[in-house]
Amino acid sequence: MLLSLMLLLLACSTNKQDPTENKIDSLISLMTLEEKVNMVHASSSFTSGGVERLGIPEWTMSDGPHGVRKEHGRDWVADSDAKDSASYLPTGITLAATWNSDLGYAFGKVLGSEANYRGKDVILGPGINIMRTPLNGRNFEYLSEDPLLISKMAVGCIKGIQDQGVAACVKHYLANNQEYERNFVNVEMSERTLREIYLPGFKAAVQEGGALTLMGSYNKFRGQYCTHHEYLINKVLKEEYGFKGAVISDWGAVHNTLEALKFGTDVEMGTDLSMLPTPNYHNFFMADTVISLVKSGQVQESLLDDKVRRILRVMFKTNMFGKRAPGALNTPEHQAIALKIAEEGIVLLKNNAILPLTKASTKSIAVIGANATRKHAGGGGSSQVNAKYEITPLEGLTSLADGGITIKYAEGYRIVKDGKADKKLIEEAVKAAAGAEVAIYVGGFIHGYSDSWNDNAFDSEGQDKPSMNLPFAQDELIAAVLKANPNTIIVLYGGGPVDMTKWIDNAKSIIHAGYPGMEGGKALAKIIFGEVNPSGKLTVTFPKKLDDSPAHVLNAYPGDSSLNEEYKEGLLVGYRYFDTKNVEPQFVFGHGLSYTTFGYSDLTLAKSDKMVTVKLTVKNTGHVAGAEVVQVYVKDEQASVERPDKELKAFTKIFLNPGESKDVSLVLNEDAFQYYDDVKHQFVLEAGRFNIQVGSSSRNITLKGDIEF
Ligand code: BGC
Q1: Using an 8 Å Cβ cutoff, are 461 and 381 in contact?
Q2: Which of 193, 386, 426, 606 would bridge with 613, disulfide CB 3.0–4.6 Å?
Q3: pLDDT tens column, 602-642
Q4: CB-based contact 50:42 (threshold 8 Å)
Q5: Degrees (nearest 5) of the Cα angle 108, 112, 115?
Q6: Residues 6+ apart with CB under 8 A from 37
Q7: Model-level pTM?
């Protein structure tokens, strides 16, 4: 009320076109220096300051990318009354494996609606860093190794979140591609690599998704901390990309007051851990020191005004001064979305005629492995969720079998520190497998949470995995189970590639489930029994072994002894490397099987000016309904500079009944053919021949055609 009255009076004295900008100017003109400073730093671990006198509330934030995080109470003082449960959605890697941008939107809608319900103004996600190494502990939160796929999925997600009246916070800007020494590592890469691989997701987030906030990452880039980076934030993000929202620091990522003020940080977040239990946020870099710097004339107040303006802009856009439509928590619609994403995001990697199982004729199943009963929502670091519920694979299978199938469970291995092969558990597992018609092995990686130890078992923030090997001696167990019952389906949870070389030749069927969320066990069971036809596709190449992957073969991870890390592989991240250098992966980017088959035909390429329209027909040539991801790659045949063998430039997912055909039309704009010229400092289109390749994965290319520019 007070605010509206003041704004009304003041709006009359300004003359800008945009009424909201007028209101913002008016508010800023009413603020004292201290009040402005109060808005640009944390006021508790998940709020930044408001100005009560002017009716500006605190800004309330919460993790995270796949569900609203459990409450930690103000400044981590436990809140026993916390109403903090939420929907636990499939994590980033599983969401992106749907290759369905409509599901990106649906995912964002759930996140935004629940954040709103829980009283949050900003939800700290999506996480869109490039998956550069299989070892990154946070790959499970991220989307892909490919910038186009990331862009399409992130844009949907951001729009879904922001349509619910809360702001998305796209993280982590930039080059936070590993957790190892994330606070200190200094990333070096060529300008071309930056522009072609690491920036496009963020550019799309801002320009197509309209992201209202971004989070600056912990690491350094070209010698300067990313959270206050003159080039990345001021020049690229705010000037070139026209970003009008606010840059929020990662928690505790600000290192210097002047740099933060000048180089684009708009809000300094973190917890004043040094002063707990009575934190003092006046100590923050962007707190009282700023007051002295402005008063002594060393810093102009206009710098601060710009930050306050950006924050207020987001506050107005998210209706913090008006009435936000109410949010909702764990509704049947949210549950259905979580299920749908899991159904479309679980990837069938290999299938030699065992799947799907037939419910009516299957009499006995042995379910083996600790992930069959493990819940994952609570772990992983800041992305933890206090899930309303989480259906485990064993629960999903048991419920679908509905008493008609005898299901026996054997643990197989234990989730313990340095877990070695346990002879007794292996014997039990072998016995169960041998005594059943089919065995379903559910293992892989986990998140750490209440466990007080860390090792390569974990997909987790703050640490990388030491290797791509399965933890808890699972290789030995899997080999024994496969020997006992060749009809074993291997299901792996985890945030990315796994070394399967020790047993893959004997495995008839392998499923990668990622982290499929609260409905994951149900979705998995439906896929196993053919109630759902799998349509997920890998968003990251699975190398055979770690040393096949680019950052590792080039010794470009995890940085030298001074923690400088040159991204020596440059543009050749993921399949761009494997295809260009002819290295055979275990499973290729874009790969994922279905229970039906698809035929591709009638490719036509039509060029008009600098745009190419790709048309083709896809037919479901099998006996069950299913979805196919049509992928379009571009290969520059006559480049004067190094270019990857091929690059994903368009894709779409289509649903087809048996025998049904659909015409697909995809447009490749000029940027699909361009590369970044680091002499001209711009993207250029070089004349010559381009080969357009269409298929169901990066290596299963069924149609090809040339186009000349
Ligand atoms: C993480 C961010 C997270 C923040 C707040 C940081 O440690 O890197 O992704 O949003 O904490 O919990």
Answers
A1: yes
A2: 606
A3: 999 999 999 999 999 999 999 999 999 999 999 999 999 99
A4: no
A5: 140
A6: 286, 287, 288, 290, 291, 304
A7: 0.97
